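Incident log entry.

Two folding requests arrived from the same account within the same minute. Monitoring flagged them as a possible duplicate submission, but the sequences differ. Recording both here for audit purposes.

Request one:
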Amino acid sequence: MSPFTFLSPVTWTDEGVSPPLPLGGARSAVPTWNADGDASFALDARARIGGQWTPWIPLAIWGPRERRSLNGSAPGIAMETDVVTLDAPGQALQLRVRNGDAGLVRALSLATAPERSYAPSAQPDEHSVDLIVPERSQYAVEGERGWCSPTALSMLMAYYARRFDRGDWQLDVPAVAARVYDERYRGTGNWAFNMAFASSLGLVAFVAYLDGFEHARRFLRRAMPLAISYSWKAGQLEGAPLETSDGHLAVLRGMTSQGDPVVNDPAQPEIRTSYPRTQLERCWIEGSGGLAYVVVPPELAADAVAIALSP
């Protein structure tokens, strides 16, 4: 079973409950949603474990004026900002829309965290690829150091704004940061909120766990950059902008002919940079399980989903 499920359109029940999204035995998953720009609602979740559904727990409040993760918990299930965790292997997850119109939520995705050890991906002899992704710094506001996620998202949006002549996708970093800010978490790094905001502007956005750089290269070949989430300790990532990081996002824009990743790293003085392939891949797979932001216009959504489903 693929560690990723994407539903669009979503067939909601009259009570605003989604179809079961398969968990495949996972104990951890990231649900994301795409909704119309003016939609306001609360989301709940429950999981089926051992043939029984857990109680519903509150996930988040989402809308143009209020955005807050809720960190609900019940026996067997808990929400930690943007990740659902289970006490035992899960069979399925359901979402429920409250205090809003479920029909405005046009797509759902569920990325289930893989349990695996890192093994370097193959490095085929291929031509280099380097997509022209606008370069932006996470230090757009003096003293602000935690904006890697909205900065990466703003770069992806600006890339497609140029390609598809969509000025409404061309937003600066502070504007994106304000719209993805999680009032409970008090930060801009909520993965689901970043995807929900991109979707509110008409993009299709989801997170997916990828197998490695050869899986990611399939997106690059179709001119689709990604934002990848990784972490490192001292000495693990040659040329890193900080000695250590427990979570960072950068835009994967290309690969050299030797297979090294080319990224727009929003924490680097010179944004466009390249890291040693095996080092960054290990930091990505071991740090987040290979999690990536996939943000594309509707015209590319079918291709993006197909690549996410087929490593």
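Request two (distinct sequence, not a duplicate):
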Amino acid sequence: MGKNPEIVKKISRVVDFIQIAGVYVSMLFLVAMTIIISVNVVLRYGFNSGLQWAEEIAKVLVVWFTFLALALGVKQNLHISIQVLPRSLPRWVNRILDILKDSVILIVGVIMIIYGWDLVQFSSRSIMPATGLPGSFLYIVMPIAGVIIVIESLMDLFQVHSSLENFDTLMGKGDEDA
């Protein structure tokens, strides 16, 4: 099956946009969580009053940050991996191992979509007490992260490379370690 370079390029751009947006949203969640917790600590211990919703929103933000970071780490191979076999093996053996790795990641993403959606539906029957938000709001990020994981693993399986191969340079970190 041949690749249409124009379609592949468009898909790659969309996936790159999702990746960049996900990084910025994750950073925003981390900063917001830090500010909310800090303000709540100051209010609680400095003024004997806190924000009722702070703990609940911080929990939502940490769950969303964690799942988004998990999904975004797939593109950059940031997850723990054990390299049992040296990279000096023949190229075809390494390709088979990469296919196996990407297939396992794909399966994990599909499981996150299926069971994450079940969790969202189950938790939609409850309400978070401080904010009044549906309980599903806490877990809706799980199937979203699963979709990102599936997309990234499919891109790896089909060897579709993006312009974000050097993501640290794109994010302004450069090559300080070099």
